[in-house]
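If your schedule permits, I should be very grateful for your opinion on a structural question. Thank you for your consideration; the sequence and its tokens are set out here:

===
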Amino acid sequence: MVIVATLKTIDIESDIYSHLLQNTSEFGETPSSVLRRLLGLTSTSSVIPPSHEKSELLKLLASTEFVYAKGVVGRFLVVLRWLHHRDPEGFAKVENIKGRGRLYFAKDARTLHAAGRSVNPKQIPGAPYWVITTTPTDLKQEILERVMRELGYSLADIKAATQAIAR
């Protein structure tokens, strides 16, 4: 895991990052604030300038819902749910996102079952769409990237989301 702090980047091992997540006490608490609290440190510059405020997507990726979602599939579904919620009409474009001879999205599980074997379709929570979930993580990342490109997200947001689902 990489944590960015005022112009500095440090690499931490995933077990330490997991410990930080488990010790998060409030919604959206940053790793730095968790460490400050656990180590009894006070912040000299805890105010984030307005130009560095978290985007709505980054808030989602730091949310309890996302962080504690069950595995890659759970995180994948959380992001898809959020994308649908933000643009239900535009989200309809997902039906055009397909693999070579394989459907990724449909309005019902039966369509996905009929289009491929071992697809394990899951409904995107709060959306009238289903997505296949038996793809490897890198393909889930590619599918998410394609969805976000169709919906007009920036490359930075796409990279943040696709990397976050694989944590």
Notes: The CA atoms of residues 20 and 31 lie 6 Å apart. Residues 45-52 have pLDDT under 50 and may be disordered. The beta strands are 2-5, 8-11, 98-99, 102-103, 105-106, 122-123, 130-131.
